[in-house]
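Researcher: Here's the sequence for the chain we discussed earlier.
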Amino acid sequence: MDSNKNKDDFNLKNAINFIVKHFLALAITFIVSTIVIGGLSLLLPNYYKSQVTLIPADSNAVSKAVLSQMDNYDVLSYGKEKNTEYILELINSSTVISKTIEKFELDKHYGIEKEEGQQKSDKLNQRLVSNIKAKRTDNLGVKITVWDKDPFYAANIANYMVEQMQVLRNDMKKAKMDSIVSTLIVSNARLRRDIDILADSLSVLAQQSKMLDPEKMSDRLSQELAKQIAVGNQGAISRLENKLAQISKDGPKIIEMKVLLERKTESLRIWEEKLEQVRVDAQSNIPVDFIVDTAYPSQLKDKPKRSIIAIVGGLCCMLLALFVLILKDNNKA
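Model: Thanks. This is the structure I predict for it:
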């Protein structure tokens, strides 16, 4: 065991001695390669970064934000995790991407307009993937980062994508709300027809029986009948009894129709309130997402990191030179 330890110490000592022996060559290799790679990195174009940070709202329904009567609803509340995922899906959608490509002529901007077919599409997708990133932040926000050789292009692309995301979100909401409005209008019209028919039937029955409020009329006639019985007026008693009999026959129908008419009228009122709320949502085109940071043209490049490239390249060349020296030394042995 001691012999193995001494052997390891000997190997480590030899390795240190070997590095010290060739230190000048390794140092020259590192310095020269770092300078050369640093010089070559100057050929790489500068890329500027622009970012937009936004936080989705809890709801994009204007009626809920303005017309809501819920005490526990906060108009300015931030969205939840699912809202963030929805925003990411919209930003990465083909609709937003295709509009961005068309707006800024990215195929021409990236110098691939002469390509054709699938090759052009593949190269364009590679550029978009490397130059445009959308990710969720730690605080359930969304950050869009765009790199470009032109800082103004980077800022404009980032802001435009947020704008088109909001347009797409409103278009989706409007399409849904328009469908709901159409359904509610048909239902509302049917309910109005039912109310009109019921009101006409109630009016005809009330005129035929000559009674508008059977309950009150029955009370008054009962009181009058008691008076006539007390005085012994048989003619009046007979007429009152006939009238009470008619109330007993037609009164329940009238009461039932009145109750049904009141219920349908209340339903129509609620229906019209809902319809108005949906119309507000369908017609509104208000961005409801909280834009924390707007993209602006950067004055400083973000990449490439030429110092890091040069140092890493120099280290790699130095290690390669060390490996070659070791092989050369072993061959001599």
